Amino acid sequence: MYFSAFPTTDFNGTTLLDITRKAKLSSVVEFDALSYMDYRVEEGEKPEDVAFYYYDDPTYAWLVLLANDIVDPYTQWPKTIFAFEEYLKVQYADKSGTTGDAVIEWCRNATIGANILYYQSHIDPDITLNRASYLNASNEARVEFYPVRVYEYEFKLNEQNREIVLINKSLAPYIKDKLEATLNDE
């Protein structure tokens, strides 16, 4: 559905869809605060599921992605717990020196320092220290901070991806028409 709005181009005598075009929602139409609705993606929900539940049409998955400026749903959409742990196994195998489920255990292990990414303040979560700064801090200053390990850090990033916005469903047909016009005008 989304790509059907794209113009075609000629490449070596073959007519192809010109997928090099990209439009931001703000360039398609202007919105006010009532145009958006907060939504939390549940475990296992895909953009097509959200589009079906909210817009009554799974082909509006492109609008779910566009509204959240998601270009790559494989990395920017929330992973299921299984996919999340598979991602960790690949991403941290070298650093952990292990493979398979042992990587997950390494990511969570509270008795090692190698899986600590940074230290975060109990009082103000916006204040963080790298390992060197933490180790150079006084004992009384260290009490204010706790280690953020790989698993916790990656889990938090994945959970942040669950918080999305949806465009008011009454605007969906209008946005589709405006998007088609915008993509074909470039």
Give the gist of this structure.
The protein has 186 residues and is α+β, with helices and mostly antiparallel strands. It has helices spanning 25-28, 47-55, 61-67, 73-76, 81-91, 93-96, 101-108, 131-136, 139-142, 150-160, 172-185, and strands spanning 8-11, 14-17, 36-40, 116-121, 128-129, 145-149, 163-167. The protein contains 11 helices and 7 strands.
Features of this protein?
elongated, 186 residues, two-stranded antiparallel ribbon, 7 strands, 3-stranded antiparallel β-sheet, 44% helix
Explained architecture:
- The protein is built from eleven helices and seven strands.
- The model has no long low-confidence stretch (mean pLDDT 87).
- It has helices spanning 25-28, 47-55, 61-67, 73-76, 81-91, 93-96, 101-108, 131-136, 139-142, 150-160, 172-185; strands at residues 8-11, 14-17, 36-40, 116-121, 128-129, 145-149, 163-167.
- The chain has 186 residues and is α+β, with helices and mostly antiparallel strands.
- The chain is elongated.
- The chain has two domains: 3-77 and 163-185, no CATH class; 81-159, no CATH class.
Write the layout of secondary structure elements.
Blueprint: E1 8-11, E2 14-17, H1 25-28, E3 36-40, H2 47-55, H3 61-67, H4 73-76, H5 81-91, H6 93-96, H7 101-108, E4 116-121, E5 128-129, H8 131-136, H9 139-142, E6 145-149, H10 150-160, E7 163-167, H11 172-185
Helix pairs in contact: 2-3
